[in-house]
Amino acid sequence: MIHIVIHGTGRMAAAIAAAVADRDDVSISALVGPQAPDWETKIPWFSSFADLSGLPDLLIDFTLPEGTRAAAIWCASNKVPLLSGVTGIPADIVAALNSAALCVPVLWSPNLSLGVNLLADLAGRAATIVEQESAVIIEDIHHQWKKDAPSGTALMLGARIAEERSDDDSAISYQSVREGEIIGVHTITFKMNGEEFDLVHRAHDRSIYALGALDAGAWLTGQAPGLYSARDWLSGRRQGS
């Protein structure tokens, strides 16, 4: 049994709690965040890490960038593995994650959906085949409350394409739309000579991120200290390690 503390009390915390209810290999021992959850739950809530009475096997972080900094410091100090799905993280907080990774296993990914990570893999493969000068447009559509634009997932997809091309991302442009209750749609368009093609991922339910977080978190607890990505998790998933 893997005992988890969730850092955050919003919609992703609720989705993870719902996903855990159907499993017998993980449990949530507490929620930590400055605001109490506005959804019905019997999971104990604490306003700060200092109020926790014991240490979990894993901390899952779905807060905001400053919350991720606090999570990284706490996990490093208490030797607790950290999985973060927070997007829009600036360089100084990436540095905090790297620092924590010297002490504990840390997995940071802006998107833990299996489908999105397959999309990234396909986009990377396409980037090695189409003409180097082909323009690439990455569009992300999300709900009206999402703050970062482009989304962390869009930037992740762009970085993967640039990496496979072995160049910068100057030929990649981003478009963001924020409206309604849309969970997430990411479209990658490759514009070639006389033709173009799209790769698309549509999220229909937030549970896909929760299930991915639980799967990745379970994998992470068996790893040595270091900074891991969703690619590492999927590679380990395929290899059964």
From TrEMBL:
The keyword Metal-binding does not apply. Pathway: Amino-acid biosynthesis; L-lysine biosynthesis via DAP pathway; (S)-tetrahydrodipicolinate from L-aspartate: step 4/4. One of its GO terms (cellular component) is cytosol. Keywords: Amino-acid biosynthesis, Diaminopimelate biosynthesis, Lysine biosynthesis, NAD, NADP, Oxidoreductase. The keyword Amino-acid biosynthesis applies. It is an enzyme of class 1 (oxidoreductase). InterPro entries: DapB_C (IPR022663), DapB_N (IPR000846), DHDPR_bac (IPR023940), NAD(P)-bd_dom_sf (IPR036291). One of its GO terms (molecular function) is 4-hydroxy-tetrahydrodipicolinate reductase. GO terms for biological process: diaminopimelate biosynthetic process; lysine biosynthetic process via diaminopimelate. It catalyses: (S)-2,3,4,5-tetrahydrodipicolinate + NADP(+) + H2O = (2S,4S)-4-hydroxy-2,3,4,5-tetrahydrodipicolinate + NADPH + H(+); (S)-2,3,4,5-tetrahydrodipicolinate + NAD(+) + H2O = (2S,4S)-4-hydroxy-2,3,4,5-tetrahydrodipicolinate + NADH + H(+). Residues 2-111 form the Dihydrodipicolinate reductase N-terminal domain. Residues 115-234 form the Dihydrodipicolinate reductase C-terminal domain. Its EC number is 1.17.1.8. Belongs to the DapB family. This is 4-hydroxy-tetrahydrodipicolinate reductase. The lineage of its organism: unclassified sequences, metagenomes, ecological metagenomes.
